[in-house]
Amino acid sequence: MKNAHLSKFYKLTVTERLELLYERGILNQDNFAALRTGSYRLDAATADRLTENVIGVFSMPMGLGLNFQINQRDYLIPMVVEEPSIIAAVSAAASRIGRSGGFTSIADTPLLLGQVQVLDLPDPHVARAELLRRKGEIVDLANEQHPNMVARGGGASDIQVFLRGSTAEHGELLVVHLIVDSRDAMGANLVNTMCEAVAPLIEEISGGRVFLRILSNFTDHALVRARAVIAVDQLKSETFSGEQVRDGIIVAHEFALMDVYRATTHNKGVMNGIDAVAIATGNDWRAIEAAAHAYAARSGRYSPLTVWSKNDNGDLVGELELPLKVGIVGGQVESNALVRIALDILGVDSAAELAQVMAAVGLAQNFAALRALSTEGIQQGHMRLHARSVAVAAGASGERFNDVVDSLVASGNIKVWKARHILESMTDPAAPAAAATAATRILHEVPDLGRTAGFGKIILFGEHSVVYGYHAIAAPIALSIRAQVTRQESGTELVIPGLVTSGNAHSAESAESAESADSDLPVRIAALIIERLGISASGMRIEVFPSLPRASGLGASAALAVAIIRGMANCFNIRLTDNEVNALAFECEQIVHGTPSGIDNTVATFGRPILFRKANGARSANFSAVTVPHPIPVIIGLTGVRSLTARTVSLVRTAWAKSPSRYDGIFEQIDGLALAGVGALERGDIAELGDLMNINHGLLNALQVSSPELETLVAIARRSGALGAKLTGGGGGGAMIAIAEPDRTVAVAGAMQLAGYTTHLTEIRAATEPPATDSTV
Fold it and tell me: Could you report how far apart the first and last alpha carbons of the chain are, in Å?
């Protein structure tokens, strides 16, 4: 008996895995040689004989599901699937279930139904009675078509006759079901041949006209059932008890019972495992899917295929029942060498045994998904496995493959462009990996930061002019600030890594003792929020976790205010709408900037691209969502020079006061660029967007808010292929942004890095739910 437990199998190379299977006797010499040399692969010439209009051969990976004990027997289960988490999850689930005794699985004798449709009957009820009386003749005629099948104990065994109701023009519909045992073959062609053969006899007996004659893929005469009892101590995780996991799986099952949307995804998880085995063994997975979903809806309501409950001992009990007609012999098996190898590895002796194995895999897959969903969540377990697929797509191979996967997982950004950047940094001598790691942080799309965080932002168009009531476009970035507030007996502690704070945040006067301006502002912001929320009598500890650089023009002060507001509201159970959070954050911005436009706090609060305009006073503004149909990569370059927005705003205001008409003319031009930018974003026209950015930067230069470092970064970006580059935020230092074609984005960032600047890569993308348009701050 083979051992289904292959320790650390996933850590071996493909060659090492094959050698281990050969040494264990799981692969015979021929199969080992075929897998090692690749001679099993289907070539185009052979494929051309199997289907029509062949232009190539499509490949998918085949792996092994491990640890399965089914009916007291060990199985290694070949699975063909492109999603790595499926094989990993099912193997882990089988191991956990195996420690509680494994699976039991029972299959009915697998029967197929052929259907013969009869119309235009003179007397439907007489026809039905006569067909049943002469069913022996019909069965014998069907079996004459396949004497060898009859000799093996199979063939047609019975008929059923149904009256289905009146048709529109052809009277009562009568259907003859021909019941056939195809033994270990899938049997579709066999049943179709039999239906064709008996059609004239059925017409003669019934006096009607036969129309359709074909098999049914609803194989409810070939049911299979799998069951597993899992001890509660085998269910626990690092953070959840066994009882919690058990009850969570049962609740998840109840959700599927009550909701068709959840039931569909629930059953898709079951079929993730079954389909993968079906493809590996050359079976018709489309027919299997159709039958499974029809069976799930047999009551008239679509329901889950599995049932999860607890027994009297408190153990978790999982049960699966579905129709599963499969085969282990026939043309599909003989024509594909890899199918034959898969069946050799699996070692089943009959189609019924294969069905039992597949049902156990489906139950294991469902268990794995429900356990993940009810504990740490499905995505956490998928991350590393998904990173492997992404690394392959980016071209990683050999010794670098695992390094790329590790870096992807560490970044939390499992994207092909990220993997290519990592790979490039490993292979490009002009960009050593260590230097790239130190200089660059690649950002993923804006995450769901929850209720205790504020977003950073970039301004695409409209810096400074927005203060005077003109339009601006801003977008959130994945750099953020998060705050966690916890209660304590008395006093307030404000803890920000890398920033010294002092004094009691309950009182704005305490800020006078702060050691620097940087520590002064957070204390004053916290004091204002405490006062406005009416929690001055409460003690608290405020811990701030920033990933957003200060004084960079990326909205750090607004993100800090939003994070602290939400942290306090969360701690003290204060219900705040987003508009209320935004309004209070605006007051905090007044502490920092004096006369802010309100754009920073709005993006920090709502976390989505917006078209923004002040209206009717400093505390009022209108903003609306900007549609972004496809993510647009953006390079952020940091000058390393502090950007004091209040200072540059003050300088521009002084210049405007001396020559308002001249500066209003510049602001109006910037306003036109912002409005044109909305159209470019909504069309995904990055070339137009780049042109508008370049013009906007020139106008910001006319306002004298750029700096030598910003000009250097803008020039580097454009020389290395950026379509557009400009400063973002207040200017005078801080940050700039650039956009390029996707295949040039990493090169633009790399050129900035080589010049000694820190860069970040992010994306402009539409939020899942847009903000309410024309909202008032």
Answer: 72
Q: Are residues 601 and 464 in the same domain?
A: yes
Q: Are residues 606 and 457 in the same domain?
A: yes
CA angle 542, 548, 552 (to 5 degrees): 125
Active site residue 83: yes
Q: Please provide the DSSP assignment of 214-250 as one string.
A: EEES--TTSEEEEEEEE-GGGT--SSS-HHHHHHHHH
User: At 376, is the pLDDT very low, low, confident or very high (cuts 50, 70, 90)?
Assistant: low
Output Rg (C-alpha) for the chain, integer angstroms.
Answer: 34
In the block, tokens 């377990």 appear at 381
The reported pLDDT for the residue numbered 514 is 32
DSSP 556-611: HHHHHHHHHHHHHHHHTT----HHHHHHHHHHHHHHHHSS--SHHHHHHHH-S-EE
Looking at the fold, whether 348 and 231 belong to one and the same domain comes out as yes
Residue of 382, 415, 418, 726 with catalytic role? 382
Query: How is residue 536 written in tokens?
Result: 């001055």
* pLDDT > 70 fraction of the chain, expressed in percent and rounded: 88
CB atoms under 10 Å from CB of 341, counted, come to 21
Mean pLDDT within 651-655: 91
DSSP, collapsed to helix, strand or coil, labels residue 692 as: helix
Q: Are strands 758-764 and 539-546 parallel, antiparallel or unpaired?
A: unpaired
Cα(539)–Cα(398) distance, rounded to whole angstroms?
56
Which residue among 19, 30, 74, 83 is the active-site one?
83
As given in the structure block, the two tokens for residue 220 are: 């409810």
In this structure, what CATH number is given to the domain that contains residue 338?
3.90.770.10
Say what the pTM is: 0.54
Cα–Cα distance measured from residue 759 to residue 255, given in angstroms and rounded to the nearest whole number? 46
726, 737 Cβ separation under 8 angstroms:
yes
Q: Is 284 a catalytic residue?
A: yes
Q: Which of 284, 353, 589, 763 is catalytic?
A: 284
- The percentage of the chain sitting over the pLDDT mark of 90, rounded to a whole number, equals 56
Domain count, the chain: 5
Nearest-angstrom CA–CA distance, 417 and 401: 15
Q: Which residue among the candidates 2, 5, 236, 268 is catalytic per the annotation?
A: 268
**Do residues 713 and 757 touch, judged by C-beta distance below 8 A?**
yes
